[in-house]
Amino acid sequence: MSIDMEMEEILNLFFEESFEGLNAMESGLLTLEDATDKECINTIFRAAHSIKGGAGTFGFMEISGFTHSVETLLDEMRNGARGVTPDAVQVLLQSVDVIREMIQSAQAKQPIVMTGANALSGELARVLAQKGTPAPASASAGAPGGHAPSAPAPTAVVAAPPVAAAAPAISTPQPAKRESSPTNGVLEGWRIDFVPDPSLFKTCNDPMRIFDELANLGPLEVSAQVDKVPSLGDLDPTQCFMSWTLTLRAAAEHARVAEVFDWVDASSKITYEPIYGSGAAIVAAAVKPAADVPQATAQRGTVQRVAPPAEAPASAPAAKASGESGSLRVATEKVDALINLVGELVITQSMLGRFAEKYEPEDVESLRRSLAQLTRNTRELQESVMQIRMLPIGFSFNRFPRLVHDLSRKLGKKVELKLTGENTELDKTVLEKIGDPLVHLVRNALDHGLEAPAQRLAAGKSDTGTLELNAFHEGGSIIIEVKDDGAGLNKERILAKARERGLVDQDANLSDDAIYNLIFVAGFSTAETISDVSGRGVGMDVVRRNINDLGGHVQIFSTAGKGSTIRIRLPLTLAILEGQVLRVGKEIYVASLVSIIETVQSTRENLSCVAGRTELFRHRTDYLPIIRLHDLFGIEPDSRDIADGLLVVLEAEGRRVAMLVDELLAQQQVVIKSLETNFKQVPGLAGATIHGDGTVALILDVPGLIRTFLERQSMQMGRAA
Amino acid sequence: MSAQDLIAKATEVVKAAPTRGGETHQYLSFFLGGEEYATDILTVQEIKGWDTVTRVPYSPDYILGVINLRGSIVPVVDLRVRFALEKAVFDSATVVIVVHVAGTRGERIVGIVVDAVSDVYTVPSENIQPPPDVMGSVDHMFVVGLANLDNKLLIILDIERLVISSVLGDDKAAA
User: Fold this and answer.
1) Which of A163, A245, A296, A439 has the most CB atoms at less than 10 Å from its CB?
2) Where is average pLDDT lowest: A49-58, A125-134, B29-38, B39-48?
3) Confidence of residue A322 (pLDDT cuts 50, 70, 90)
4) What number of other Cβ atoms are within 10 A of residue A529's Cβ?
């Protein structure tokens, strides 16, 4: 493996870990709102710190610079120097978005966009300036993110007053230099006091490497202070008792020097003193009036607050899509289970191999046993391999606490989010594609479903609305429910709106289900005002289309005043289908079990005919059009009499039909193969599968079938008219 | 022609080829309604016996259906029907030539049913004549040229164009 490839791999690891870190920060910040938990702040801080360090190592100075400001704020919270205010949490949450965006652009190998960071660093500076926090923090926060952090050790701020005093000047070296240079000549080097934390070695940091790195910049003198080192008997070799004074004779930028200490600067006391022309070290702290710093940042704050970081979340998904990798993170247990199964398979194979060498008629029983074992092994192996692609839906649910938090704030509603069944597993592809539809549904529930607190109280409900996201397995499918206890769907309004738009006839009498299904029609919205949250009527049709594309379907349940539930049923995987095998004449087809409501044998009384053409079947209270599959596909059936065959009641895209077939055969899992790879797309077919005997059976595309049928009918109607 | 004759002849053809000069190609020839057709051997993936096909609705009559070729779903074209020849009864001698062709959406694998596979010929390109405008039953757009080998006429097909137009059910797609 080349160095480049290795580097690329490490870089990818950094991105992956950074995104995990950001998620941890986000969820930490959301819990922080309610309770000030020390451990929680520590977790957030650690995540931010790793991102900063990693970004610095890989040369993403913009990221490490911005993250450093965030870290400063977090550090003050951690030390108790500042309380946890909703304001600060909000800014930190926005910072998480900005950092995520920056890492995404770094991942996409694009130049890092600084607009978000620049805008937000003003906000950060403002928050930092509140409560009269020490100047150094606000100064470094104000550093416009473009370069490496001019890192004053955050702990130093509270730990050592003299160090803190030195920090402000160093953290903004350019102004300091400008002020001092006229009298003291040009920058010649740096004197650095490096007092590491005793745990330095435990964090895998080697001072020698740091010194080597510094020596690359120019001649370096190192003197060590060993006075704190205890006698040999008391010495703990894992602790670092030494400190160093380093003199670097190189006119390096401060950022360049500070970068070397990036990994250790949070846990160590480091002071940097510039050395100017005369060779004497200037104690720069005195040169720079501390009052300048808040002033400068305040200015920056006002300027940058003009541009709110509004684009940040919008551009994020696009960047994410391009950076999507085809890799899977698989739990070790799953891989171990596979290895075990392969082991068993090898044993079974050797058992079977024995029969080939020498076969005695009395062996037939043990041959049969071995074959049964092979069957079981194969099935288990198949299941385990499928398991590898299965991920918990929690990956998709994770984004909702943040989304609900932000939206409820924006809409002025009180919302409690309940997530259940996060560990329900589904196929990676399905998981990736279900995210956006779910976001639509949650936004809709928040905007249209849940009422404002005042309305809720007036309706005799608690002022806090509840939004539930629930996932569970049912049969061969996964069910995802989005449930709110809001006002419910307003049937009258939906119907009125649909009539106004000419979507339904003025005098049409529609069932509840039919009315609810109207909200899936493109361009339909009953919201009185269009907000940027929802109401444009774009969305629900996309939701349904996406879900149908995945082979699933949506149902709506709603009670006025009590709330609504949107229930999504999806197949667990796209590679394997729970199929019902059916026969028409001599041909065999497979229909997805998910789309089959039931199968009935019809009596003649249940059948009727409209206009001599459209045949209808009375199914309970509904009249369903009958699709004769043999007519549609041109097959010679056993019998053309509906009463001789079976009617399979199918549902797709909110429409139900009854399909006439000759016989139902087995229900079985089938592997979906593409027809398009070597052939072409065929209307009414979703693909093909291979039977146990090696022949091919075609898989019906139920929504497509219904569409094809309706098109044909309207064409016939047109001809008849 | 016995197998030994075939080998002897093939050796002779291979030996003779370089001395004639110019570029040579190898062609697989097959019979279809008494005529001998040929395709560039590089397009042929394998030759297999006739097996049951699964009919696909809404397909033209020359698409017999699809078969399972080691896990891939592969369409099968009946070349007799495609060329409007008399329909033959499929038996154990009927063979499917599996060809792979480069389409606009990547490589496709398609089976073509012929009466029998005949021979492999090495034909120098100067021996191939352009097809006459009128070609009888075979649409001349699918013919690359004619080769005269020992008083035998070999019709060389543009299998790529033929297969793509057949599979997509659109003659214009190939034109």
Assistant:
1) A163
2) A125-134
3) very low
4) 5
Question: If we measure between CA atoms, which residue out of A207, A213, A82, A57 comes closest to residue A141?
Answer: A82
In terms of pLDDT, which residue wins out, A430 or A316? A430
For residue A678, the chain B residues in CB contact (below 8 A) are: 72-75, 108-110, 167
Q: Which fold has domain A577-720?
A: OB fold (Dihydrolipoamide Acetyltransferase, E2P) (2.40.50)
For B3-174, which CATH superfamily applies? CheA-289, Domain 4 (2.40.50.180)
Q: Is A237 helix (H, G, I), strand (E, B) or coil?
A: coil
Residue A648 has φ and ψ, to the nearest 5°, of -100, 120
CATH code of the domain made up of A1-150+291-321: 1.20.120.160
Reported as type and span, the H/E element at residue A189 is strand A187-195
Cα pseudo-dihedral A531, A532, A535, A541, rounded to 10: 180
ipTM, two decimals, is 0.80
Tell if the CB–CB gap between B52 and A695 is shorter than 8 Å.
Answer: yes
Please give the residue that has the higher pLDDT: either B39 or A216: B39
Q: Are B54 and A698 a contacting pair at CB < 8 A?
A: yes
Of B73, B108, B168, the CB nearest to A696: B73
Q: Provide the CATH number for the domain formed by A173-287 in this structure.
A: 3.30.70.1110
Whether chain B has a CB inside 8 Å of the CB on A674: the answer is yes
Distance CA A287, CA A682 (A): 80
Q: With a cut of 80, say whether residue A504 has pLDDT above it.
A: no
Distance, CA of A272 to chain centre: 41
- Count of A-B CB contacts under 8 Å: 67
Q: A392-571, which class in CATH?
A: alpha beta
Residues of chain A contacting residue B68, judged by C-beta atoms under 8 Å apart: 690, 694-696
Give the pair of three-digit tokens for residue A218. 């120019």
Reduced to 3 DSSP states, what percent helix, strand and coil does chain B have, rounded to the nearest 5? 25, 45, 30
Domain residue ranges of chain B, discontinuous segments joined by + = 3-174
- Among A587, A673, A677, the residue with its CB nearest the CB of B55 is A587
The CA distance from A310 to A308, in Å, is 5
Pick among A632, A680, A699 to test the B interface (most B CBs inside 10 A) = A680
Nearest-by-CA chain A residue for B63:
A679
Contact B68 A684 (CB under 8 A): no
Helix count and strand count (H, E) for chain A: 24, 22
Question: What is the DSSP annotation of A478-542?
Answer: EEEEEEE-SS---HHHHHHHHHHTTSS-TT----HHHHHHGGGSTT----SS--SSS-SS-SHHH
Which residues neighbour A544 within 8 Å (Cβ) at sequence distance 6 or greater? A520, A554, A653, A654
Residue A670: C-alpha distances to residues A383, A527, A573 (Å) = 13, 44, 11
pLDDT (tens digit per residue) in A418-465: 999 888 888 888 888 888 888 888 888 888 888 888 888 888 888 888
Domain ranges of chain A: 1-150+291-321, 173-287, 332-388, 392-571, 577-720
> Which residue of chain A has the CA closest to B71?
A690
Comparing alpha-carbon positions, the chain B residue that sits nearest to A674 is: B73
Q: At what angle do helices A135-142 and A61-78 cross, to 10 degrees?
A: 150
In this predicted structure, what is the pLDDT of residue A582? Answer: 93
Which residues in B lie closer than 8 A to residue A685 (C-beta atoms)?
56-57
How many Cα atoms occupy the beta-carbon half-sphere of B3 within 13 Å?
0
pLDDT for residue A251: 75
